[in-house]
Amino acid sequence: MMAVDIADFVQPYGGHIVADETRDLDWFTHNDNSNCPATANLCRWSDANFSTIRSGIGYDRGFIANAKMTDTEIDTNPEQWRISSEGSGSVNDGVYKVGQKTGRTWGYISQICKTEEVPEDSGDYYLCQNEVTTLMTGGFPFADHGDSGGPVFSITDFPAMNDATLRGIVVAGHTAAGKTLFSPIGAIYMEIDQDEGSWATWNSCAPVLSC
Fold first, then answer.
1. pTM for this structure?
2. Which of 6, 12, 29, 148 is least surrounded by Cβ atoms within 10 Å, i.e. has the fewest?
3. Angle 49-50-53 (CA atoms, 0-180°, nearest 5)?
4. How much is the pLDDT for 94?
């Protein structure tokens, strides 16, 4: 059940396209895996996909651009966070996200391993996702439409200042209760493992480090 959403990945300023989705990982049914609800249409463990960076676009593996709070403008203090470790997180862990639509926001993990229909009434379910409750004021969401795929992380300042632990990626935007789902890094690697083989070949940390 391979599919491509034909998604473009854009930078906020001028809508510059920096990458193109080439393939989503496979959806499955209850008959394929009993973890998928019997009433579901299709299920996935994460919102990960494979994409190709466009020619001429520079990037740094293992780094997250530091947008200003509730803004997509790049902050210069620091300009980026270095990914020094990975971990899906626990309830009450504080997390940030950086997204194309809402910039940098923060919240805390309020539930782990939650199965939810996304979008609502679609019949499609994401299994064992983590839920974030926003800590933003004034009704500002943790994430919104256009932020999907954005990194969710905790700032650890270990082993050096401006280091971070990658928690996962945004799946779905906010609800009236200020909740957001994200695919935990463990689910992402498990899904890639099932699709591609040894997950040990995938490493989101900065090149000088080993996750």
1. 0.90
2. 6
3. 125
4. 97
CB-based contacts of 167-171 (< 8 A; 24+ apart in sequence): 167/87, 167/88, 167/89, 167/93, 167/95, 167/109, 167/130, 168/46, 168/88, 168/89, 168/130, 169/46, 169/47, 169/48, 170/47, 170/97, 170/99, 170/143, 171/46, 171/47, 171/118, 171/126, 171/129
Output the six-digit token pair for 145. Answer: 């439409």
The sign of the torsion formed by the CA atoms of 53, 73, 109, 205 equals: positive
Pick the closest to residue 92 from 127, 130, 144, 46 (CA basis): 130
Task: Indicate if the alpha-carbon torsion angle 80, 85, 87, 89 is positive or negative.
Answer: negative
| Predicted confidence (pLDDT) per residue in 20-39, tens digit | 888 888 899 999 999 999 99
- Which regions of the chain are under pLDDT 50? 1-4
